[in-house]
Amino acid sequence: HQHLFHRAHLKPLLLAMMIAAFNQLDGINAVLYYSGDIFKMAGASNTGAMAQSVMVGAVNLVMTLVAMAVVDRLGRKPLLLIGSVTFIASHLLAAWAFHTHAQGWPVLVAMMGVVGSHAYSQGAVVWVIINEVLPNSVRAAGSSAACFLMWTLCAVISWTFPVVAAKSGALVFGFFAAMMALQFVLVWRFLPETKGVTLEAMEQRLGGH
Length: 209
Known about the structure:
Helix content: over 70%
Number of strands: 0
Low-confidence stretches: none
Number of helices: 9
Largest sheet: none
Order of helices and strands: HHHHHHHHH
Mean pLDDT: 87
């Protein structure tokens, strides 16, 4: 049994941790957990906020089904790259809406964009990629480390989002947009396509033995 932090496993482990981190830094759980509050911040009534939250949930379901249909056809890397672009557009729209105090459809479109982007990109491929880049000998330990990082970030973002958003919605959505721009660059530069590649070939490619 090889140790998780062996030098040969460094690159695949870093890639797995990167994907796990961006799974939370895309802002998905901030939007899902606080969608009603976000719509109220944008001026919606209680009933309106609830109705808009239901619409966001419907988009999540539809785009998850779309992702399941195309993930093996398009590949993991293209979905992450396209998702990064639609994430950036959605978060910037939300940041603009809160900065200008625009109400109504811009915030709804932005939230639907964030949830839809996650459903067909990060949400669809996160565990597929993590398990495809990690070598057989350390897959269980590596997946556990990625899971720990993901849920730690989830907790941090869940606790801090309402505090920061209450002061500046534009700032928090601008931060998520910046994180998705960083994801695009890092995925483009460093993440290999794992579709159709054997686990052994991927391990060799990423410097394992």
